[in-house]
Amino acid sequence: MRFLVRDRLLGFGDDYWIEDDHGNKVFLVDGKAMRLRDTFELKDTRGRVLIDIHQKMFALRDTMVIGRDGEPLATIRRKRLSLLRNHYRVSLADGTELDVSGKILDREFAVEYEGELLAVISRRRLHVRETYGVDVVREDADPALLIAVAVCVIHLAEKERGED
């Protein structure tokens, strides 16, 4: 499954659709303006909130939190003691971890679980400007969660670089 995500997703007050590779609207991104922290909701086509994304306010390192139904689902931060700057750890609420590595700022990276590929994020072969693709490789993977992970990692990498 491939989803097309607008590159500047994390803009205050931005609302727009994420489409599948056939141009069908799949998820609505609802950016919440006038908040102390970055807050976004990923909704389905009926308007139900699937994922809540926000920045953790009082953390030693920049951290993004993904939630579902009011409960934390995942915490994302740059991996400590990594020689690679573009290496992030996603700690899921069930105690498992996802590994995100690659060229984050170039939108060329992968999300893995215990060495198994879950999703590939890439701009290659896309003709739509300011857009990147999220290719969900495993059929049993949660597309909304993987899109949220990609968005958060890009946001953290840009913030670290000083682009945000």
Poorly predicted sequence stretches spanning 5 or more consecutive residues: none
Total strands: 12
Strand portion, in percent? Answer: over 45%
Q: How much is the average pLDDT?
A: 84
Helix content: 10-25%
Class inferred from helices and paired strands = mainly beta
- Helix segment tally: 1
Strand order in space, largest sheet: 1-2-3-4-5-6-7-8-9-10-11-12
Largest sheet: 12 strands, antiparallel, barrel
Radius of gyration: 15 Å
**Element-level helix/strand string:** EEEEEEEEEEEEH
The rounded distance between the terminal residues' Cα atoms is: 29 Å
Shape: globular
How would you characterize the overall build of this protein?
The protein is mainly beta and 164 residues long. It is built from one helix and twelve strands. It has one helix at residues 143-161; strands at 2-6, 15-20, 25-31, 39-43, 49-55, 64-68, 71-78, 87-92, 97-103, 108-113, 116-122, 131-136. The protein starts with a strand and ends with a helix. The relative contact order is 0.18. The protein has a twelve-stranded antiparallel barrel with strand order 1-2-3-4-5-6-7-8-9-10-11-12. 12% of the residues lie in helices and 46% in strands.
Summary tags:
single chain; 164 residues; mainly beta; twelve-stranded antiparallel beta barrel; 1 helix; 12 strands; 12% helix; globular
Topology readout:
Elements lengths: L1 E5 L8 E6 L4 E7 L7 E5 L5 E7 L8 E5 L2 E8 L8 E6 L4 E7 L4 E6 L2 E7 L8 E6 L6 H19 L3
Antiparallel strand pairs: 1-2, 1-12, 2-3, 3-4, 4-5, 5-6, 6-7, 7-8, 8-9, 9-10, 10-11, 11-12
